[in-house]
Amino acid sequence: MRSRGDLGRHELIGLEVEVVSSTHPGYVGMKGRVVDETKRMLVIDKDGGEKRLPKRACVFEFIVGDKRERIEGTEIEFRPEDRIKRVK
């Protein structure tokens, strides 16, 4: 089960996400559901199309239950299977 505080160690696919800050102004405010993830990218479904967002360039806000959790993209910039196994 996903919980607040340890989101960086859990599956992100299926979560709603919004870019709250980015080094590229075009990414700020982009929202959608995470449909895929690679080491360096999150792929979100936005208005029926897929958008690829570089993790390193963004600060993401994920919706977990009824709460929102903000996380720096650099904190999750690992292959999904390696990120999930990480021990903090």
Topology:
Elements: E1 16-22, E2 31-37, E3 41-46, E4 49-54, E5 58-64, E6 67-72, H1 80-85
Antiparallel strand pairs: 1-2, 1-5, 2-3, 3-4, 5-6
Q: Can you put this structure into words, describing what you see?
A:
The protein is mainly β and 88 residues long. It has one helix at 80-85, and strands at residues 16-22, 31-37, 41-46, 49-54, 58-64, 67-72. Helices cover 7% and strands 44% of the residues. It has a six-stranded antiparallel β-sheet, with no helix packed on it. A hairpin with a 3-residue loop joins strand 2 (31-37) and strand 3 (41-46).
How would you sum up this structure in a few lines?
The protein is mainly beta. It is 7% helix and 44% strand.
CATH C-level name: Mainly Beta
Cα radius of gyration in angstroms: 12 Å
Number of domains: 1
Which percent band covers the strand fraction? 35-45%
SSE order: EEEEEEH
By DSSP, the count of extended strands is 6
The helix count comes to 1
Distance between the terminal alpha carbons, to the nearest Å? 17 Å
CATH architecture name? Roll
Core attributes:
mainly beta, SH3 type barrels, 1 helix, six-stranded antiparallel sheet
